[in-house]
Amino acid sequence: xxxxxxxxxxLSLWAAGGIGAGGWIIQSVHARKGARPSAxxxxxxxxxxxxxxxxxxxxxISGYALAHAIHGGLPTGLAFHVKLVAAAAILLASLGTNLxxxxxxxxxxxxxxxVMSTLAWIVRIGLVIVLVxxxxxxxxxx
Length: 142
Hints:
Keywords: Membrane, Transmembrane, Transmembrane helix. The radius of gyration is 17 Å and the shape is elongated.
């Protein structure tokens, strides 16, 4: 069971990271060229955002199940709680990105650049914090 959970956790992490990087590249290319994305690109970005949200949600579920399967519960150290707070920020930013894309589609306007930029920075900083705190939390465990 642990192998299955680790596989789901890894694939969710890989998917969320890849989707996030791909969306960032698409947006940065359009911003650099000063071109507005076409309706197809916006639709693709919305779909990518939804997939990222699903991936992050699966990451949470599999991480929680792994912690219980390996440790018998959630670790109590400070680094683990820092990791959870940063992961929660990533989850909320992913949800916020999806809601902003939905708002922009309903209003037939492009997503607000300031909102999307802020959410992207929350995710980037959160990822660094999660990776560092995870390394600290689990450095002594098998």
